């Protein structure tokens, strides 16, 4: 296999866009020196709450060469999930926009495998692994190194042209490619809208999130009862939370996604407040078939609905 990094990179980026990805950037695989002390301090301060898996594979989180033998390149990709339509009843318990359609893990993994197959067929046999939010990869750090955007004060990756309503994914492969320039400019400036809008004060300082206070954590990750200290602070969210993204000025550039599998179940959007309050397990299974909401299970969603019902 002749080594032609510039040509290979151009081919990969073109195919990524053809597959429906919004952006594709490439960074050289190596140790994430800047992120190491930040991650260590965040864990030491117990900001990860019950997400004990964040303590595992510390070294692998910081060096993709420990995940893929002889890794040379980290290909970072984004996939838009911003919906064209949203829940109709303003009084209904709310679901984060990313969970409207099919589980993104399933959708993106399929696209990543297609991209990896393309690389093997068009460039030559490579070894690599696909990652979608389910393995020890610091995806925002790699996307920043790949020039896709900067990490905002709410800790989300932000792109000047498309905001932040997108998923992140990676292919880590043992092929040398042409690398993009890291994104070094912070375009948040003095804006603090995300910090000011968070009803639970989960954004401790710019870029530092206390997950234990985050509504997304409380409604998805937390397995115990939601602490009563969050009474009247959940803003009617029953799965996830979009507040810090909804108020971000950069998200005025968000456009509806064109991924058919992300199109929401019309029944979900049309359900009224009383429908959610009386939701049965059968209705849950129908609406959230192949959905990311299944992660919290019927029992978890019912717990969340009961909490916001009794505290509003």
UniProtKB/TrEMBL annotation:
Pfam families with a match to the protein in the record: Fer4_16 (PF13484), QueG_DUF1730 (PF08331)
Catalytic activity: epoxyqueuosine(34) in tRNA + AH2 = queuosine(34) in tRNA + A + H2O
Domain 4Fe-4S ferredoxin-type positions: 180-207
The keyword Metal-binding is assigned to this record: yes
Compartment(s) of residence: Cytoplasm
Alphabetized SUPFAM superfamilies for the sequence: alpha-helical ferredoxin
Residues the entry annotates as binding tRNA: 299
Pathway: tRNA modification; tRNA-queuosine biosynthesis
Protein residues bound to [4Fe-4S] cluster 1: 188, 191, 194, 248
Family, similarity comment: Belongs to the QueG family.
Job description of the protein: Catalyzes the conversion of epoxyqueuosine (oQ) to queuosine (Q), which is a hypermodified base found in the wobble positions of tRNA(Asp), tRNA(Asn), tRNA(His) and tRNA(Tyr).
Name used for this protein in its record: Epoxyqueuosine reductase
Organism: Pedobacter gandavensis
């Amino acid at each position: 296999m002749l080594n032609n990094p510039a040509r290979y990179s151009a081919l990969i980026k073109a195919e990524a866009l053809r597959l429906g990805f919004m952006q594709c950037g490439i960074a050289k695989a190596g140790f994430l020196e800047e992120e190491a002390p930040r991650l260590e301090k965040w864990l030491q301060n117990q900001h990860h709450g019950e997400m004990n898996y964040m303590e595992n594979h510390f070294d692998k989180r910081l060096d993709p060469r420990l995940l893929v033998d002889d890794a040379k390149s980290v290909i970072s990709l984004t996939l838009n999930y911003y919906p064209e339509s949203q829940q109709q009843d303003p009084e209904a318990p709310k679901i984060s926009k990313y969970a409207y359609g099919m589980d993104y893990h399933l959708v993106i993994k399929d696209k990543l495998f297609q991209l990896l197959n393309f690389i093997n067929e068009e460039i030559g046999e490579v070894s690599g692994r696909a990652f979608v939010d389910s393995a020890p990869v610091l995806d925002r750090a790699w996307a920043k190194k790949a020039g896709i955007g900067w990490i905002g004060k709410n800790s989300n990756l932000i792109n000047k042209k498309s905001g932040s309503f997108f998923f992140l994914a990676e292919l880590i492969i043992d092929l040398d490619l042409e690398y993009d320039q890291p994104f070094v400019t912070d375009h948040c400036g003095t804006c603090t809208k995300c910090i000011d809008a968070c009803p639970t004060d989960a954004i401790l300082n710019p870029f530092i999130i206390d997950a234990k206070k985050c509504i997304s954590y409380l409604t998805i990750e937390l397995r115990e009862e939601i602490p009563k200290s969050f009474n009247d602070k959940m803003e009617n969210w029953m799965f996830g939370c979009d507040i810090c993204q909804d108020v971000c000025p950069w998200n005025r550039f968000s456009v509806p996604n064109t991924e058919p599998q992300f199109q929401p179940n019309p029944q979900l959007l049309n359900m009224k407040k009383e429908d959610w309050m009386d939701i049965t397990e059968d209705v849950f299974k129908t609406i959230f078939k192949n959905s990311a909401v299944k992660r919290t299970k019927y029992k978890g969603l019912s717990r969340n609905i009961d909490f916001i019902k009794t505290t509003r």
